[in-house]
Amino acid sequence: IAPILWYTLSPIWNVVELNEPLPGDVTTQNKNSPATDNLERMSPEQKMEFEKAMEKMKDKVLEMNEVMDTPMVEIVAEGNFQARAHEVKGHARLIQHENNTILRFEDFETINGPDLHIYLSQDLGTADFIDLGKIRATKGNVNYPVDPSIDTKKYRNVLVWCEPFGVLFSYAELK
């Protein structure tokens, strides 16, 4: 009995936190060059030069006629996580970025369990589902790549599923 109890209860205390950036998020791509505000550190001469430059530019209007060449991130569907067997917090979002589809968990938090998997399913069961693999984190913002061959209009439920016991921990309905 002790090994069975250890197997079923030990994952509960194992919290894995992950905070992955949103695909295409330019704010996270420039972390190596932080912006600093030099206004407070400027000498009086530098401040005067700055004020002169500002005075020159105040009446100039800048126009940009070029289309920005940044990849767009589109939220295709989303839903809030609902508790089934265990409490859960957060949102699930189906995101299209360039030619990739990503299932993203945001502000996600749940307890761990034995062999938890993330499924895309037609309903709240496992009659017709796609296994996206083992849960990658029990807390944070996590991206799960979705194979392009998967019909995401057909599989509109995200399940956190405990495989050994066949228990639905929580779910989100994507709308």
What report would you give on this structure?
This protein is mostly beta strands and 175 residues long. The chain is 15% helix and 39% strand. It has 3 helices and 9 strands. It has helices spanning 2-9, 26-29, 44-57; strands at residues 17-19, 73-83, 88-97, 100-110, 116-121, 129-134, 139-146, 157-162, 167-173. It has a 9-stranded mixed beta sheet with strand order 1-7-4-3-2-9-8-5-6, with no helix packed on it. It is elongated, with a radius of gyration of 23 Å. Mean pLDDT is 82; it is low at 26-35.
User: What structural category characterises the helix and strand content?
Assistant: mainly beta
**How many whole angstroms does the radius of gyration measure?**
23 Å
- Residue stretches low in confidence (pLDDT < 50, at least 5 long) are 26-35
Quote the beta fraction: 35-45%
Task: Indicate the topology.
Layout: H1 2-9, E1 17-19, H2 26-29, H3 44-57, E2 73-83, E3 88-97, E4 100-110, E5 116-121, E6 129-134, E7 139-146, E8 157-162, E9 167-173
Parallel strand pairs: 1-7
Antiparallel strand pairs: 2-3, 2-9, 3-4, 4-7, 5-6, 5-8, 8-9
Structure characteristics:
175 residues; 15% helix; nine-stranded mixed sheet; mainly beta
Short description:
By secondary structure, this protein is mainly β.
